[in-house]
């Protein structure tokens, strides 16, 4: 099966983990930003997480360099635009980009300016490439509920203008959801959809909390439900879609191999799953590569792929009109 030729949906893609290495060099030079190396190949090695990566925490270290050069309106706009170009080049037809706005205010940008800059990149990319996109605002768990509230408030005026959802991301501690019940409730009342990183690092109870306490419609990763029946049953019974990222899960040690990854097993058991990169640069991958890596170890058929694609469309935080269009492509 030629996965590159097939239309694709990506629901879980971090902006700061998907920056072209050459763009980092260019922005660092133009904006006089110090980075560890100005050699492209050495930089690439610093950005990409190895499969020998020991943990999620080590994996997250790879974001330090991109965040340094993502502190101006123009850099945010450009990086977003280039991400849409890269996704469109491999036939991704709909993309949901996520990032944490609070990480991009180090040089004086307001949260509103940070959000607007990325939305400008999306609008320009949609105009120039054959792709649709929306934006998810991630709140960093370790920064607490007050920080999350500032992001929710700042993004409120962009709902309906490209901002579609709120997310909780970063290192995963057991029981994190309890702290964010009130802020996520307010976000839902404003009109944000909800997706939560949970069950990425073996803590299945966090998936239970994300669904029961935060009313998550989608779960980022969710690998750990395989080890907790309550979480597994909740996901299945509530038609919660798992945004699965096989290569990233190997790097963070959530799974040991593509053969062991539960994506296809979950799909066969009636759980909604989607193929995602997590981070195109940090994981050195694209959606085509993720499909190929799983497809070849499970003998995925076209009908299997089509069902996963359709489920991904249904789970997308977009309009019924765009969903209808996306369904005509396969």
UniProtKB/TrEMBL annotation:
Cofactor binding annotation: Binds 1 zinc ion per subunit.
A Pfam family hit: A_deaminase
Feature type site, description Important for catalytic activity: 221
GO CC field: cytosol
GO molecular function: 2'-deoxyadenosine deaminase activity; adenosine deaminase activity; zinc ion binding
Cofactor section: Zn(2+)
Positions of the catalytic residues: 200 (proton donor)
Residues given in the record as substrate binding sites: 14, 16, 170
Chain sites annotated for binding Zn(2+): 12, 14, 197, 278
Biological role: Catalyzes the hydrolytic deamination of adenosine and 2-deoxyadenosine.
Protein name: Adenosine deaminase
Species of origin: Clostridium sulfidigenes
């Amino acid at each position: 099966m030629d996965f590159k030729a097939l239309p694709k949906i990506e629901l879980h893609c971090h902006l700061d983990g998907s920056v072209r290495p050459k763009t980092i060099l260019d922005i660092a030079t133009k904006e006089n930003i110090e980075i560890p190396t100005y050699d492209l190949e050495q930089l690439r090695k610093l950005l990409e997480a190895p499969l020998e990566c020991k943990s999620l925490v080590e994996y997250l270290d790879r974001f330090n360099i991109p965040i340094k050069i993502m502190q101006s309106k123009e850099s945010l706009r450009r990086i977003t635009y280039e991400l849409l170009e890269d996704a469109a080049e491999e036939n991704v037809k709909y993309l949901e980009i996520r990032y944490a706005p609070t990480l991009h205010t180090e040089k004086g940008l307001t949260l509103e300016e940070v959000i607007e800059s990325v939305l400008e990149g999306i609008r320009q990319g949609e105009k120039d490439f054959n792709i649709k996109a929306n934006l998810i605002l991630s709140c960093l768990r370790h920064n607490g509920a007050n920080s999350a509230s500032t992001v929710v408030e700042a993004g409120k005026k962009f709902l309906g203008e490209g901002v579609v959802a709120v997310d909780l991301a970063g290192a995963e501690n057991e029981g994190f959801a309890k702290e964010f019940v009130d802020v996520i409730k307010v976000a839902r009342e404003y009109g944000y959809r909800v997706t939560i990183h949970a069950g990425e690092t073996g803590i299945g109870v966090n998936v239970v909390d994300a669904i029961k306490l935060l009313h998550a419609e989608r779960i980022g990763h969710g690998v750990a439900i395989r080890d907790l029946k309550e979480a597994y049953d909740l996901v299945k019974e509530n038609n919660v879609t798992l945004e699965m990222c096989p290569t990233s899960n190997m790097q963070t040690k959530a799974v040991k191999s593509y053969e062991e990854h539960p994506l296809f097993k979950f799909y066969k058991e009636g759980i909604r799953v989607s193929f995602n990169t997590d981070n195109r640069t940090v994981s050195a991958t694209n959606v085509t590569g993720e499909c190929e890596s799983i497809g070849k170890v499970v003998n995925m058929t076209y009908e299997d792929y089509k069902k996963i694609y359709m489920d991904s469309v249904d789970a997308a935080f977009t309009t019924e009109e765009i969903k209808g269009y996306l369904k005509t492509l396969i």
